[in-house]
Design brief:
Elements (H helix, E strand, L loop, with lengths): L3 E4 L2 E4 L4 E7 L8 E7 L6 E6 L5 E3 L7 E6 L4 E6 L8 E8 L6 E3 L3 E6 L1
Parallel strand pairs: 2-11
Antiparallel strand pairs: 1-3, 3-8, 4-5, 4-9, 5-6, 7-8, 9-10, 9-11
């Protein structure tokens, strides 16, 4: 079992920045793709960014050039640096760990990001 705990959400003005962090209960980066998803009210949950076990990153078109996903293996954390935030980035952001080997997927409890225009 893996526990994921997100932090760093909050209220920010458009054009501002936030940094989200996801702390994993144990070392999993060698076996799990880590991802950040978000879900806005009335919308489906969508992938924002991911980083594979090999370090390959992937971004939704809507955040390319503005968001950066990274991981700190020593601290078992995955971070999402969000710059140039827009009102449409407002959502609950979730951390996910997905193992292609065990086919298990773990989710954090989510953290609210609100961007005021």
């Amino acid at each position: 079992q893996v526990q994921l705990v997100e932090s760093g959400g909050g209220l920010v003005q458009a054009g501002g920045s936030l940094r989200l962090s996801c702390a994993a209960s144990r070392s999993i980066f060698s076996i799990c793709t880590m991802g950040w998803y978000r879900q806005a009210p009335g919308k489906q949950r969508e992938l924002v960014a991911s980083i594979s076990t090999g370090g390959t990153t992937n971004y939704a078109d809507s955040v390319k050039g503005r968001f950066t996903i990274s991981r700190d293996t020593a601290k078992n954390t995955v971070n999402l640096q969000m710059n140039s935030l827009k009102s449409e980035d407002t959502a609950v952001y979730y951390c996910n760990a997905n193992s292609p080997i065990t086919l298990r997927s773990y989710w954090g409890q989510g953290t609210q990001v609100t961007v005021s225009s």
